[in-house]
């Protein structure tokens, strides 16, 4: 009698387990792995051992979350495996194997240990996808001084130094030029006072000082 | 007061490099590739080169001749040619002033992007996260990270031109830096500018070469280059193609601003400007073509990248929905799978059909962008996908800066040279002070472009500030030289300077072809303005994450009118003034010379 009862239980156990884990179960999650996308040529084949690793890592995550309550690999039930490498899983409590751990606890366990889970499979948040658990985005890097301001400061400093140097050198040049008395006829830098017949061209022009050749009659000068 | 001779370039090479630096600007990089794409790829070369020969080279040569002959800035030169036409020079100065105001804002943006390239992760490559770290900032999700960085973090753009706000401090600082650098380049006039142009004219070519090599070695670049060079000759029948070619040549060479007159006024009397004009025009066009090869290889890379991303997304969608093995779907059979799955699992497929995109490389290549959108959004997006993105980013924005700064030199010289020729000003202020005052004035007015609505004002200035008035100015210029001053007298002046008369090509172009072309362009512009209805601009809608076409409000339209009228009206007003003053005063008639008084400047 007892043997029959035990056989019945043994037969029912997987059935019970099957009922606990099914697609679209409330307290479970669907997992998708994109190993070939992530690793390319170094991709490993998905096998029973990999699935075992997954269950073990998940048990570790849940155990960590629930303050070291003893979770075992057998508490993680997996079903509906596909070619995609996707499957559903549920987590049963260690005390009562027909009771499932609430969704929220599972979610928090996964969130907190996401990095460890990803590393176990050499995957990332995008390639190891827990459908429904969005990865927390990386915190933006905070700088004390924004780097652009530093570069700006450097460039501005150099440019201002350049201007000051130029202005000072111009000022000094002018001072030096003023010191010796300037000889109006003897121009050292050849300002080109053109003189014809001893008359400076400037005196021919009007008070604005430019001789407008645009309106010159050619007859004034000898034709070649 | 000691009489100084006019300063001059140390050697003719400086003059050529100054002209090249001025003419080769941002338009070569962001306008020409767009036109090429719009008007039939390789086929666009035909109208472009035709227009170069018919209008570009002759007009360029004419402006150089005037400056070299008169040895004065634009106002003085045109007053000397005809006392009634000093207004042409004034119109040039006003237009140059408008250009200076808004053009340096582009340099400010280049600085902003350049400084932001010195980070481990380029800030425009990813969206910032929102406060509780659950998702990205909404505006960034709807648009793209590069658009978000440009419109929100760089410009902090408002939804329309009416709404504005405070000055963007970062932008204002960059604008200040840009103006200080311009001042540094021009502080001593031609002497300092002459040294700077060795760098600003040549370094962009080096960067373009590096980018060319990088560009053609990118994955998918050849798609873009092939697309560009496949000529679509039917576009030649479209008159818009020819009009765009003419306007591109015209604006690319920077005619009518008075910069070329200013530059050549510092030349020696016998400088061979004819050869130099041909050289600079050809270099300018060659650079446009060179830059468009680079642009198209980057387009090709970006289009291929987006296309492959699209395919990846579709593959992921299919294998996730139907739980297929990863390696079963790849690029080649994805369309087969889509149709297959549609037939075999129609209801499941129906659920995801709204997310299924048709990925097309041609569609990606077809998206043509020009202007600031190309330079700051499309290009920076392409750069983020390159390996060693920071290096390429720094190099690229540095090149943009050099191109922009080189053009700014010409623009500022176009304002300063006529001012210096005005003797009362030249006597009261030294060279450095006058230059500093001009820069400070432009900086203060330019701060207005760093407000949230600033980009809309920028677009208004860009589209209306210089285009129409330049056409008018150059039309009057060529007409004056050919008919009022007289082609014969001009020929004699050229012979005086070069020792040979201009050939028949120049005479035909100056007297007939270029004026006709300019008149037709002018008429076309007027018709376009009238037919276009209310002028519109593109406003950034942050909910939709894209630009929407909006009409200008009344004050905006009024301001457009002011922009157009203020520069163009200088010509008739100055003529009227000269006419009135001439008849009021006794004109001293000197025997043997037909002197004229310069109209007041």
TrEMBL record, chain B:
Main location: membrane
SUPFAM superfamilies: SNF-like
Keyword Metal-binding: yes
Protein family (similarity comment): Belongs to the sodium:neurotransmitter symporter (SNF) (TC 2.A.22) family.
Organism annotation: Astyanax mexicanus
GO CC terms: apical plasma membrane
Domain of life (superkingdom): Eukaryota
Residues that bind Na(+): 23-24, 28, 252, 284, 403, 407
Name of the protein in its database record: Transporter
């Amino acid at each position: 009698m007892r043997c029959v009862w035990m056989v019945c239980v043994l037969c029912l156990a997987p059935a019970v387990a099957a009922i606990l884990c099914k697609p679209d179960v409330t307290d479970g999650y669907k997992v998708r792995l994109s190993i070939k996308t992530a690793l390319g040529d170094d991709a490993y084949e998905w096998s029973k051992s990999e699935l075992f690793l997954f269950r073990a890592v998940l048990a570790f995550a849940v155990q960590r979350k629930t303050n070291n309550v003893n979770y075992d690999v057998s508490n993680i039930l997996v079903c509906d495996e596909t070619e995609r490498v996707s499957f559903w899983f549920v987590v049963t409590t260690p005390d009562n194997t027909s009771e499932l751990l609430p969704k929220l606890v599972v979610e928090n366990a996964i969130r907190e240990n996401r990095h460890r889970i990803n590393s176990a499979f050499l995957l990332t948040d995008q390639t190891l996808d827990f459908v429904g658990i969005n990865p927390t985005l990386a915190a933006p890097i905070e700088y004390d001084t924004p780097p652009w301001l530093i570069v700006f400061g450097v460039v501005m400093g150099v440019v201002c130094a350049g201007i000051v140097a130029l202005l000072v050198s111009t000022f000094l040049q002018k001072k030096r030029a003023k010191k010796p008395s300037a000889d109006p006829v003897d121009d050292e830098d050849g300002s080109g006072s053109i003189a014809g017949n001893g008359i400076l061209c400037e005196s021919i022009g009007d008070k604005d000082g430019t001789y407008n050749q645009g309106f010159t009659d050619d007859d004034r000068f000898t034709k070649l | 007061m000691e009489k100084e001779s006019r300063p001059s370039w140390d050697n003719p090479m400086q003059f050529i490099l100054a002209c090249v630096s001025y003419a080769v600007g941002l338009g070569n990089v962001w306008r020409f590739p767009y036109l090429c794409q719009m008007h039939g790829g390789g086929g666009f070369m035909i109208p472009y080169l035709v227009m170069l020969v018919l209008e570009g080279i002759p007009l360029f040569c004419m402006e150089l001749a005037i400056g070299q002959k008169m040895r004065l800035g634009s106002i003085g030169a045109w007053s000397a040619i005809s006392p009634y036409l000093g207004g042409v020079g004034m119109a040039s100065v006003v237009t140059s002033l408008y250009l200076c105001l808004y053009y340096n804002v582009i340099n400010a943006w280049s600085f902003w992007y350049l400084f932001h390239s010195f980070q481990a992760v380029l800030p425009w490559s990813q969206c910032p996260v929102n406060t509780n770290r659950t998702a990205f900032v909404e505006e960034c999700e709807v648009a793209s990270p590069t658009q978000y960085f440009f419109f929100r973090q760089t410009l902090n753009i408002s939804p329309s031109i009416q709404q504005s706000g405070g000055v963007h401090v970062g932008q204002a600082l960059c604008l200040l830096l840009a103006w200080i650098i311009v001042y540094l380049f021009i502080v001593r006039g031609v002497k300092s500018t002459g040294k700077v142009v060795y760098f600003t004219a040549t370094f962009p070519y080096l960067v373009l070469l590096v980018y060319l090599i990088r560009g053609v070695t990118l994955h998918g670049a050849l798609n873009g280059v092939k697309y560009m060079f496949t000529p679509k000759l039917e576009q030649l029948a479209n008159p818009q193609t020819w009009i765009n070619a003419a306007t591109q040549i015209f604006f690319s060479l920077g005619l009518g601003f008075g910069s070329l007159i200013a530059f050549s006024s510092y030349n020696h009397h016998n400088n061979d400007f004819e050869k130099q004009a041909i050289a600079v025009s050809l270099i300018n066009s060659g650079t446009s073509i060179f830059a468009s090869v680079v642009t198209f290889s980057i387009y090709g890379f970006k289009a291929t990248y987006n296309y492959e991303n699209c395919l990846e997304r579709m593959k992921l969608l299919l294998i996730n929905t139907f739980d297929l093995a990863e390696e079963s779907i790849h690029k080649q059979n994805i369309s087969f799978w889509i149709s297959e799955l549609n037939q075999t699992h129609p209801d499941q497929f129906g659920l995801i059909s709204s997310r299924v995109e048709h990925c097309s490389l041609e569609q990606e290549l077809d998206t043509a962008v020009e202007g600031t959108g190309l330079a700051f959004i499309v290009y920076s997006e392409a750069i983020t996908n390159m390996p060693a993105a920071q290096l390429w980013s720094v190099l690229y924005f540095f090149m943009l800066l050099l191109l922009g700064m080189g053009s700014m030199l010409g623009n500022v010289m176009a304002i300063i040279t006529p001012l210096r020729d005005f003797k009362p000003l030249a006597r009261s202020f030294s060279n450095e002070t006058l230059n500093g005052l001009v820069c400070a004035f432009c900086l203060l007015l330019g701060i207005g472009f760093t407000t949230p609505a600033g980009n809309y004002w920028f677009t208004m200035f860009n589209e209306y500030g210089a285009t129409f008035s330049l056409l008018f100015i150059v039309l009057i210029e060529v007409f004056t030289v050919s008919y009022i001053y007289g082609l014969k007298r001009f020929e004699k002046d050229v012979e005086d300077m070069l020792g040979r008369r201009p050939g028949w090509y120049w005479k035909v172009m100056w007297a007939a072809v270029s004026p006709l072309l300019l008149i037709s362009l002018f008429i076309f512009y007027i018709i376009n303005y009238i037919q276009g209805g209310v002028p519109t601009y593109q406003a950034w809608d942050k909910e939709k994450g894209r630009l929407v076409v909006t009409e200008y409000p009344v004050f905006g339209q009024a301001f457009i009118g002011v922009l157009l009228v203020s520069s163009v009206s200088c010509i008739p007003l100055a003529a009227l003034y000269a006419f009135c003053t001439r008849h009021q005063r006794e004109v001293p008639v000197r025997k043997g010379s037909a002197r004229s008084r310069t109209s007041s400047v």
